[in-house]
């Protein structure tokens, strides 16, 4: 079921949000039996600690700890614990929360209800604890962000048996149809005829044909082009991954899933811009016609690429798509990809690293990240490493040796295909390794909400 808020006209019970510093005064103002109950249950207002308050008809209210400034800084969406722990029914927030804290609580509540159940026995949907949207919240924006995130999570969580290039195409076309967008799909050998040779080279070994998905929406305003890596499963190709390395490869289309989630947000909110979304959708498989180590490919842009590792395939398909994007002279180009393990080593799974040469874009993005609880971290397009991606026999090397700065060299490789200086590249993880408030274990979007919040400043909307 899609995320939703409670009917604002319906009766609701209060969820009191209490910081540690306010607990003594708040408890002293409560009826004696409530104060005694909280004392007996050991409630100390630790961040996310929840207690139900009994009343004549059962549960009359609830209280949740808001911790200290220090503990709040270390956790996102802590109040969302209540969304899945409270009894079903309507609830409203009570307490001295800032506007930003109310937005965070409301968004976290929506995200916390996500549950991937496609392969479980069908059950009637369980009643939910629904939150009344706090006063002053932009409910349309919060709902759009939640719906976009749910789409991203669904796509990433679906195993490759049911989310190959064809199924990703179907999801892409369904997204376009919901919002009246136009689409074009180039499949199989037509990729060669349309000068998209590296997408073809990566995907041709699979029994599931490679393709480029192209969505266009909007008629006025600046042109925003999103490019998402759609590797629906990655064996590594002839440089085959060990079995342990393939366990999460259903998420290798996380870049595609995230730009589709962002597109859902943009179109649902009817932002005053023109949107183009490009998704090269492939499976990196093994067969007699698979690309080989040391093959040299000629890209759409005309640059030649020596394939020094067939497991560095994502940057190859993105390169052709980025060259195509650049030809349209967009106001802003953004690529998103689950591209390198080096990015995860650098910043872990919780941060979305990004690259840009434009300091203004970076400032807008980081402000948007703080506003939407969607953390990002800037890494450099370090020109000093350009020589690492130049093999000598071809213009570019898709997998430089040495093991240093893998995320940066991958980003530099992609930048060679974009002349537009207003370019942002994200190297995301797309997976939540353990349950956290509002983020159950599994697929997760990264950077999309931050971008949504930053777009008005980035594009002067």
TrEMBL record:
GO BP term, pick one: proteolysis
Domain Cytosol aminopeptidase: 309-316
PROSITE patterns: CYTOSOL_AP (PS00631)
Family the UniProt entry places it in: Belongs to the peptidase M17 family.
Species this chain originates from: Fertoeibacter niger
GO CC annotations on file: cytoplasm
Name of the protein in its database record: Leucyl aminopeptidase family protein
The entry's keywords: Aminopeptidase, Hydrolase, Manganese, Protease
Record-linked SUPFAM superfamilies: Macro domain-like (SSF52949), Zn-dependent exopeptidases (SSF53187)
Single GO molecular function: metalloaminopeptidase activity
Superkingdom, natural source: Bacteria
InterPro entries: Leucine_aapep/pepB (IPR011356), Macro_dom-like (IPR043472), Peptidase_M17_C (IPR000819), Peptidase_M17_N_1 (IPR048816)
């Amino acid at each position: 079921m899609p995320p939703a808020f409670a009917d604002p006209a319906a009766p609701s019970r209060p969820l009191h949000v209490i910081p540690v510093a306010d607990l003594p005064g708040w408890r002293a103002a409560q009826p004696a039996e409530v104060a005694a109950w909280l004392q007996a249950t050991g409630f100390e207002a630790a961040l996310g600690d929840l207690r139900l308050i009994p009343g004549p008809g059962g549960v009359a209210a609830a209280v949740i700890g808001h911790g200290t400034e220090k503990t709040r800084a270390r956790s996102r969406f802590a109040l969302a614990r209540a969304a899945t722990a409270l009894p079903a029914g309507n609830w409203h927030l009570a307490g001295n929360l800032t506007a930003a804290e109310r937005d965070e609580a409301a968004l976290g509540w929506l995200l916390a209800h996500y549950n991937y159940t496609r392969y479980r026995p069908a059950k009637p949907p369980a009643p939910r604890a629904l939150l009344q949207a706090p006063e002053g919240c932009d409910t349309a924006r919060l709902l759009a962000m939640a719906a976009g995130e749910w789409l991203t999570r669904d796509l990433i969580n679906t195993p490759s048996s049911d989310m190959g290039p064809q199924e990703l195409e179907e999801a892409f076309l369904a997204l376009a149809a919901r919002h009246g967008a136009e689409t074009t799909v180039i499949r199989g050998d037509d990729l060669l005829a349309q000068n998209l040779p590296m997408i073809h080279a990566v995907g041709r070994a699979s029994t599931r044909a490679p393709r480029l998905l192209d969505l266009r929406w909007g008629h006025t305003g600046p042109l925003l082009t999103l490019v998402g890596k759609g590797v629906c499963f990655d064996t590594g190709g002839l440089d085959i991954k060990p079995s342990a390395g393939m366990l999460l490869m259903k998420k290798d289309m996380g870049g595609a899933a995230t730009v589709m989630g962002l597109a859902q947000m943009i179109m649902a909110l009817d932002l005053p811009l023109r949107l183009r979304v490009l998704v090269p959708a492939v499976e990196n498989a093994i067969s007699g016609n698979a690309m080989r180590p040391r093959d040299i490919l000629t890209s759409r842009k005309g640059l030649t690429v020596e394939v020094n590792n067939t497991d560095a395939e994502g940057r190859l398909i993105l390169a052709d798509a980025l060259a195509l994007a650049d030809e349209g002279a967009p106001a802003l180009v953004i690529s998103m990809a689950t591209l390198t393990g080096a990015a995860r080593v650098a910043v872990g799974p919780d941060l979305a690293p990004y690259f840009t040469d434009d300091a203004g874009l970076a400032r807008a993005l980081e402000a948007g990240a703080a506003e939407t609880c969607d953390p990002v971290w800037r890494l450099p397009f370090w020109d000093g490493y350009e020589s690492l991606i130049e093999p000598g026999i071809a213009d570019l090397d898709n997998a430089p040796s040495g093991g240093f700065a893998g995320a940066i060299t991958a980003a530099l490789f992609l930048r060679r295909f974009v002349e537009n200086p207003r370019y942002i590249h994200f190297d995301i993880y797309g997976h939540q390794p353990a349950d956290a408030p509002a983020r159950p274990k599994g697929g997760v979007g990264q950077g999309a909400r931050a971008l949504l919040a930053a777009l008005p400043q980035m594009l002067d909307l």
